[in-house]
């Protein structure tokens, strides 16, 4: 009996000892791999990652205090054990975007399970000189790198880091599953073109919480195939607000399902919460979307469904969108709008929105172009609680 007990205690000690060494012993500090401030740390980072990722015990890559130039980096998994990436200092992108192709990330994490990215540091995209340069021509803007991409990353946490002045989207998540984004700061000026804060597409079980996103485009945008996304306690602005879509531009888009946006604040954004689909579009589905407990401070269109989304007149507006929207609620939304159409639900005449609920909305219009109002088209609306603006009258 006594011997058995001792063995148990001993193996417990051994376990504790092993995990303790794992934690302290497997630190891959990039300065140990030749990284120097103001030099390109691409090689040092690659080596540190290789060591940490091939380690059989949990390990971490550390970028210490200081500013390190980085031409680009791709961190591939799978790794042999959980891995941490501790960014304390700043990684700084080249100002010149030459060499990046469509959809490239400046920093990319790919096919990794159990990644923790944290540390208080900054991904500095140095986008100042590229925004607004001939975006309409030669796909110049789509070739600009995305600051940080997560491709097929699973069961991971990204927290307490900053994305600054991205050249294009700040953060893009594709094929992700079980991801938490928390305590992020995403910062670019209002006039920075196409710098969406976080774009999520084709992903499942994603939470974005407790973050500040000030940028020139969508605060958070949600692409096709996104399921179970929760956004909570995020402050957006400046920028274009939180968008589902745009949807319907491409064939075979996967459904969007199970989106919750709650307890968020929008400051001076072009829109608050918006669902946008292209007219004359491919088929698509988006359902189960809840928007609740939202503060609007001087927001252009606080509540918006736009199934006639057609920037730069690229489409035939007379043909309706074929994206079916259903089970949508907008509840407990208060504050001020900078245009009179505070609640605007413009659905497709081919596929009217089904099962849309609005309730307890109290939005004041701050300007002098008439009273605050609701605008509706092709929507089957249920109203609960008080409404200001008054809900539109409709014929069922
Ligand atoms: C996200 O939040 C939801 C609801 O709070 C929770 O059920 C889910 O497990 C969370 N997912 C992750 C990846 O943290």
UniProtKB/TrEMBL annotation:
Belongs to the glycosyl hydrolase 28 family. The active site is at residue 240. GO terms for biological process: carbohydrate metabolic process; cell wall organization. Residues 1-24 form the signal peptide. Pfam families: Glyco_hydro_28. Gene3D superfamilies: Single-stranded right-handed beta-helix, Pectin lyase-like (2.160.20.10). PANTHER family: PTHR31375. Keywords: Cell wall, Cell wall biogenesis/degradation, Glycosidase, Hydrolase, Secreted, Signal. The keyword Ribosomal protein does not apply. This is Polygalacturonase. The lineage of its organism: Eukaryota, Viridiplantae, Streptophyta, Embryophyta, Tracheophyta. It is found in: Secreted, Cell wall. It comes from Ficus carica. One of its GO terms (molecular function) is polygalacturonase activity. InterPro entries: Glyco_hydro_28, PbH1, Pectin_lyas_fold, Pectin_lyase_fold/virulence. PROSITE patterns: POLYGALACTURONASE.
């Amino acid at each position: 009996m006594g011997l058995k007990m001792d063995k148990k205690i001993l193996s417990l000690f051994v376990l504790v000892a092993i995990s303790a060494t794992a934690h302290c012993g497997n630190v891959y500090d990039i300065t140990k791999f030749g990284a120097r401030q103001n030099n390109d740390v691409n090689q040092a980072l690659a080596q540190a990652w290789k060591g940490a990722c091939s380690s059989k015990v949990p390990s971490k890559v550390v970028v210490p205090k200081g500013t390190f130039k980085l031409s680009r980096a791709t961190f591939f998994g799978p790794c042999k054990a959980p891995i941490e990436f501790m960014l304390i200092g700043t990684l700084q992108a080249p100002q010149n975007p030459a060499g990046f192709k469509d959809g490239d990330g400046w920093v990319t994490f790919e096919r990794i399970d159990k990644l923790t990215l944290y540390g208080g540091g900054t991904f500095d995209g140095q986008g100042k000189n590229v925004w607004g340069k001939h975006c309409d021509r030669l796909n110049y803007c789509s070739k600009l790198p995305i600051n940080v991409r997560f491709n097929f990353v699973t069961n991971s946490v990204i927290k307490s880091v900053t994305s600054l002045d991205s050249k294009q989207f700040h953060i893009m998540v594709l094929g992700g599953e079980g991801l938490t984004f928390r305590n992020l700061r995403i910062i670019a000026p209002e006039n920075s073109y196409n710098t969406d804060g976080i774009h999520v597409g084709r992903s499942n079980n994603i939470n974005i919480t407790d973050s500040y996103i000030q940028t020139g485009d969508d605060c958070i945008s949600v692409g096709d195939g996104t399921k179970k996304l929760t956004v909570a306690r995020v402050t957006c602005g400046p920028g274009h607000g939180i968008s589902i879509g745009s949807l319907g531009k491409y064939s075979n888009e996967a459904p969007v399902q199970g989106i919750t946006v709650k307890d968020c604040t929008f400051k001076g954004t072009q829109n608050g919460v918006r669902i946008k689909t292209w007219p004359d579009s491919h088929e698509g589905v988006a359902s189960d979307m809840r928007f609740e407990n939202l503060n609007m401070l001087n927001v252009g269109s606080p509540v918006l469904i736009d199934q006639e989304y057609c920037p730069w007149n690229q489409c035939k507006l007379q043909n309706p969108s074929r994206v079916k929207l259903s089970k949508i609620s907008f509840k407990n939304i208060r504050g001020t709008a900078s245009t009179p159409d505070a609640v605007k639900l413009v659905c497709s005449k081919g596929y009217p929105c089904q099962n849309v609920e609005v309730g307890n909305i109290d939005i004041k219009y701050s300007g002098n172009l008439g009273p605050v109002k609701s605008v509706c088209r092709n929507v089957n609306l249920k109203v609960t609680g008080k409404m200001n603006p008054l809900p539109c009258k409709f014929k069922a």
